[in-house]
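Fold it.
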Amino acid sequence: MDGAGDDGRVLDGERRADADAIRDLAVAYAHAVDDRDWTRFEALFVSDAAIDYTASGGIAGRPSEVAAWMPGALSVFTWCLHSISTHEIRFSGPDAAEGRVHVCNRNGTVWEGESELIDINGLYLDEYVRVGDHWRFRARREQIHSVTGGRFADLVRSISTLSSST
């Protein structure tokens, strides 16, 4: 994302409300995944949105496809905790924006008889669109920077595309 000329610019009241709604959307995503609420997850996206989890060995697809895939993909985890921060949002039109947000995804699993923690850290690279009085994801792509943990983390690292760019 470029746009350094917009850094620190005071947003008017409507744009501030838009930015808050987009941040709320990102928080809702984290809770939907952690709660394994796939109906809520799918509703956060426009129906033709592009979701790309291939960097962590997952799939790319539309929200309905990814929502159907997620229960099996996350079944290896006993719990998930997505923490997001440092959310940057750039408006590209009255009803469109792009963003990136840091994610630390901590998961619990039992792998080969041992309890493990696995931390997956990176960025979500997003496109947002206003639909009526809501903001929704038009696209979300995961970019992985590190995977730490035990033997299961070794497996995830072997199928992940780790990125050194931000």
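Strands lie at 45-52, 60-61, 77-93, 96-111, 114-131, 134-149.
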